[in-house]
Amino acid sequence: MNIETVATQIGLEWDTRTGAVSVPIYQAATFRHPGLGQSTGYDYSRSGNPTRQALEEGMARLDGAARGFAYSSGMAAITSLLLLFKSGDHIVVTEDLYGGTYRLFEQIFQQFGLEFSYVDSSDNSLVEAAIKPNTKALFIESLTNPLLKVADIPSLATLCKSRNLLCIVDNTFLTPYLMRPLDLGADIAIYSGSKYLSGHNDTICGLVTVKDPALAERVYFQQNGAGAVLGPQDSWLTIRGIKTLSVRLDRQEENAAKIADWLVNHDLVAKVYYPGLKDHPGHELLGSIARGYGAMIAFEVKSPELVERLLLRSRLISFAESLGGVETLMTFPALQTHADIEPAKREALGINDRLLRLSVGIENVDDLIDDLEQAFRAE
């Protein structure tokens, strides 16, 4: 079955009693037992809720996984996964990753004895060189945030299997619609469901899919034990969003490609990062492992003064954090999403005072380009 159909049908089978096409919101904390030692399959909503289960099972189908798991945020999802490891374990990590993930690793989990090494995950040799005797996992982003480097997931997954490491892929920017990491050999995929999956900037959500049933049982134990689960209302909102994922992302990617081409030729733009551009270093690789290039663009303007002009003079494009919604958003990574990375490291990575990140929405692309142009020229 095609993935567009799978996404649209999520939750359709859940209310067999009434035939409700939209999965009901089971706003219940606890469930009655039919008898002593008997259960309906639901006891307490931290351990399982029907609305959340509809989302989790739908995500598992979308990603070709044994099980899916829904959390109260993307950071809660990553936190729960890190509970799979113990003090003294080492994890190799994408170097230009989301700043909130970096903060979680460096400022929270290091104090519990986990060790992290950051490398350019688009270079397989650097990843391999960073592996140590106590390395337990590789944590990468399929497209890095914000510089949009491309990881060779099939090769890295093979490397992980040869070294008995977990291969964990944050696939937020591409979603299962454009790429399924588990099909490429990864063990675990992570998503900020707040982004493209829910798609309307109205939900905070984290999602995880796991390929191996035994590993999935371990992940469920940590999810239930730590308890940072997604509530039924947000589960329903995420299900609703996923149903239109394909049509939204098709339009967003089409818009992004046109905007990237326009930015490349702009006299005030120094550099454009978009994997759909043929001169992007990861263009051919991503084209071979994914069905699209996504709708995120990073671009560097020629002077820092232009940053404030673009952020504050845009009329349609909102100066706001997050990404993946139907509305186009622009952020300044150095002071927003990546503020917790040390300034010298940010600069070395290319996250400088001239870099902007654009999450392209579904508006008419000509209106978006006109808005950028008038902001560039504003006085």
Can you describe this structure?
The protein is of the alpha/beta class. The chain has helices at residues 3-8, 50-63, 74-82, 99-109, 124-130, 153-162, 175-178, 213-226, 232-242, 245-264, 283-289, 305-313, 343-349, 365-377; strands at residues 67-71, 90-94, 115-119, 135-141, 166-170, 188-192, 206-210, 269-273, 296-301, 318-319, 329-331, 355-359. It has two domains: 3-242, Type I PLP-dependent aspartate aminotransferase-like (Major domain) (Aspartate Aminotransferase, domain 2, 3-Layer(aba) Sandwich); 245-377, Alpha-Beta Complex (Aspartate Aminotransferase, domain 1). The chain is 37% helix and 15% strand. The relative contact order is 0.13.
Please specify the SSE layout and strand pairing.
Layout: H1 3-8, H2 50-63, E1 67-71, H3 74-82, E2 90-94, H4 99-109, E3 115-119, H5 124-130, E4 135-141, H6 153-162, E5 166-170, H7 175-178, E6 188-192, E7 206-210, H8 213-226, H9 232-242, H10 245-264, E8 269-273, H11 283-289, E9 296-301, H12 305-313, E10 318-319, E11 329-331, H13 343-349, E12 355-359, H14 365-377
Helix pairs in contact: 2-9, 3-4, 12-14
